[in-house]
Amino acid sequence: MGTKTFNDLHQRASVASSDCMRLLDEAAIAAENPTQLNKYNFPAQFRALFMCHGLVQQQDKIVDRSALTIYPCSLVLNLFRRVKLKVLVACEYSGRVRDAFIKKGHDAISCDILPSDSPGAHYQGDVRDLLNNPRGYDLLIAHPPCTYLTIAAEWAYKERHEINKNLDPNKLYGEARKQAREEAIKFVMDLLNAPIKMKAIENPVGVLSTRYKEADQFIQPYEYGEDASKKTCLWLDGLPKLKPTEFYPPRLAEQANGKGYAFRWGNQTDSGQNREPPGDDRWKIRSTTWQGWADAMAAQWG
Ligand SMILES: C[S@@+](CC[C@H](N)C(=O)[O-])C[C@H]1O[C@@H](n2cnc3c(N)ncnc32)[C@H](O)[C@@H]1O
Fold this sequence. Notes:
Layout: H1 3-31, H2 44-58, H3 65-83, E1 86-90, H4 96-103, E2 107-112, E3 122-124, E4 139-142, H5 174-192, E5 198-204, H6 208-211, E6 217-219, E7 232-237, E8 251-254, E9 261-264, H7 282-287, H8 291-301
Parallel strand pairs: 1-2, 1-4, 2-3, 4-5
Antiparallel strand pairs: 5-7, 6-7, 8-9
Helix pairs in contact: 1-2, 1-3, 2-3, 4-8
Bound molecules: S-adenosylmethionine.
């Protein structure tokens, strides 16, 4: 095949590939399930390819004569392309998402202004230094700081003299806090505008839902095998929604004042407050990515 023909085919296959990627992902997940396709004695990726090919043929709307050539080529190209993704995990000191992708055979690096808590490829500095890296990344997963994005302490956006509480000298209030919020939103926009094809931004429920857009999905640690509750938003670009992997059952906690019972998880008191006592590393404990989320991201997006 001549270079020109190959390049042309490659380009057409790439255009057609986003549907294929989704189908291939679904097929790959199904093929890992031993109850399906187990009569074939093929490696999982081959079974995925066969199944995917069947799915493609069923999609009348996407099958035309040229697709008959393009899709098989696209599938093969994607199989090779999937072997190694270049993954940038932004705002991560724990290394959890990075290491989950590396475990799956990908080329992943974490980045934080803090050092990494676990050894591995890590850029200590501002992630914006990396966003336009000419070597490029295929996938960006970002956990930007939520201090000024959450709506948990809206009272602190009033001016000091309007707040009827003891003020913490190390915290921002009023106009200074509003300014910090604008900078935090701008930071997220810089991540979203990065020239990276697949992106996921993770953050608690907060102002991004009104200032950017509604989250694409909400996830909970207890849907991914963790004994914890923390409703968290994901904004996705070029990625499928994360599918729950394993439900962690709650305990039933009796509520004060005869208010009946409520479901609670390990990180919650019976009344629903966060269990971790105040302390220097409280923010770190609370913001470390749950291992169940990291593993699901690598298994489903890798
Ligand atoms: C909410 S924490 C996320 C922690 C993450 N879930 C983990 O498991 O490591 C936000 C992190 O963003 C980092 N950060 C803040 N500004 C940054 C920047 N400009 N570039 C890279 N990291 C930044 C902070 O140091 C902090 O560790």
